[in-house]
Amino acid sequence: MTTSAEPDTAVFEKLESEVRMYCRTFPVVFERAKGAELRTEEGRTFIDFFCGAGSLNYGHNNEFIKRRLLDYLADDGIMHGLDLYTAAKRSFLTSFNEIVLQPRGLDFKMQFTGPTGTDAVEAALKLARKATGRSGLMAFTGGYHGMSHGSLAVTGSRRARRAGGVSGQDVTFVPYEDGPLGPFDSIGLVERLFADSSSGTELPAAVIVEPMQMEGGVYPASREWLRALRQVTERYGVLLILDEIQSGCGRTGRFFCFEDAGIIPDIVTVSKSISGYGLPLSLTLFRRELDVWAPGEHTGTFRGNQLAFVAATAVCEIWQQPAFRTGLREASEHLARFRAELGALDPALGLRGRGMVLGIDTGRAGGPERAARVQRYAFDHGLIVECCGRQDEVLKVMPPLTIDPALLDAGLGVLRDGLLAA
Ligand code: PMP
Known about the structure:
The chain is about 40% helix and about 15% strand.
């Protein structure tokens, strides 16, 4: 790592809103990036264990995807198409269906929503309400689904909800299977609320859930819990929405995190790494019978970014490459070995995750102050890692799925040293 001049951040501080966030933790000016590494304009390099909050699962400027994008640009491929039929969209629909959905037994229709994750969630909630004729929703404590009005209403964080001015909005919250306050019999409570005609709650249109809570502190739901949730929702005719925006696209080792449980949800939201290049694209997937939309009932100018379609089609092909699948398995094993090593080094740490995500919980091992010190140590030693959880007490380790083993090792080494030093 080389350091030269002080980062030139004055313009951002003067002109950009106080709402800016990540740049406060990582106060440098990024200029270029490749694979698992970021480079600042001052010439510092960082290993990226943050990956745009899960938007860069295939690394920065992935060569395979980039070539497709460059060809498309050079050929004057259509760049904006509302929801017109385009060749780029046809290629994506076909590839995603044949490579991702069909082999997993998922007969889903695809809706392209506005460009960001919260747009896919809004569409999912709206569709669930329209399809069932019910207005209530059920969500889980610790869940995160976005910052627009509907998705915020099903998000747990009091701070985020207050800032958004959302109140009850017909949402019933149930504790997640696990969280900082310990395990909970969520399914028992859901069952009671559904079954009891005097429960004080109407049967909801849908239950929305992350199969692994990411912002909430890296809490994976067990396979049994997800299966039980699928059963109870099915029994009462309540739709099950799986929010795979951060846990999906291979992050937990499989394309969808819910695959592990062998369940078929009614609605799935996908965003972040679906384009694989950091280009904005969001999808709401749902069982064919649920496609009760009338034309134009949910619309928007930027639905289905054409460049993102090109990139996302290339990503489908990446999933067919044996080298990618082997690399993902080996990197996941590498992370699992590191987890075991940390567990032996500091048994007070909570260690959770699956595949290419590891949550290092300092809740009983020094708390948020220690997590912040480790994050700072990592930054000073050339590693970007984010904190999550109620108090930012959990270090969220999310390297690219395609990271080179030597870089993975180097980044994990910095984390280990940081934990020992802090
Ligand atoms: N759902 C989940 C599970 C998320 O992690 C996020 C983003 N962190 C969202 C929804 C919202 O996505 P976006 O920030 O792109 O609106």
